[in-house]
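S2.1 Query sequence (RRM_1 domain-containing protein)
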Amino acid sequence: MNPLTIVKRIQNLNSEEATLGISEEASWHVKYKDSAYVFVGGIPFDLTKGDLLVVFSQYGEIVDVNLVKDKGSGKSKGFAFLAYKDQRTILAVDNLNGAQILGQRIRVDHVSSYKKKEEDDEETEWQKREARGVFRAFQKGKYTRGTG
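Output structure tokens follow.
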């Protein structure tokens, strides 16, 4: 589905709830009350984690920012996951979904089950790369085990 269609649907749903006077307990947001994470899509590629903190911290304290990047180039893929300290995701979704940053309309939505990726330290990352390189060399037949 087109991301702008999703933005409009969320905005329409929020507007309907406000018009009908639906209580917080009956809101569509209640499904996500235990999740501290929000998805942010449509981010300009040159935005940094610091930029996201500036924009999103106006609705609560941010405790985690995962700006997803391409492993090869290290460039942003244009989306991120952010966690609030005290589950203030409703404020972020209601107020920032459809907002424009550097001329691009962003999508902000709840995330029901986000698992924070554990980041490896530099040494562990190097060991993994080294192991993959050696393994691939064996697969391609460039190296063989010694015969003793």
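The first strand starts at residue 37 and ends at 41. The chain has a mean pLDDT of 77.
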